[in-house]
Write a structure and sequence with these properties.
single chain, mainly alpha, 0% strand, elongated
């Protein structure tokens, strides 16, 4: 039957054709429970994301330089972007930023 059942007879025939698998045994159930993350652990959501090739390659290079997986690097980048846009963020003027930058000492490069 390739279509959805339309009549009561079709529904009966459809239901009669269903086959149910036996429930899992205790060993299978224990293995399934062991494969679950620990209680209280963070829930991770899988997202599909389209990136231009150059951006993906740049993220891979940055992740490698940081010594972390690319997905972790991307997750941290998103967290930083959200922190910058947080409602409690206190933006400063360009003049204040320049004043703060002039107080920094230049980095000393050792040859």
């Amino acid at each position: 039957m390739s279509e959805m059942p339309q009549t009561p007879e079709d529904v009966t025939a459809f239901l009669d054709g269903l086959a149910f698998e036996p429930s899992t045994g205790p060993q299978d159930e224990a293995a399934l429970l062991d494969s679950l993350p620990p209680a209280g652990s963070a829930v991770m959501v899988v997202r599909s994301l389209r990136l231009p090739l150059e951006l993906d390659q740049a993220a891979a290079v940055a992740a490698k330089a940081a010594g972390i997986p690319k997905t972790s690097w991307i997750r941290q980048a998103i967290e930083m972007a959200l922190a910058v846009e947080a409602e409690d963020d206190q933006p400063i003027s360009r003049a204040e930023a320049l004043r703060a930058l002039t107080l920094l000492r230049p980095a000393r490069h050792v040859a």
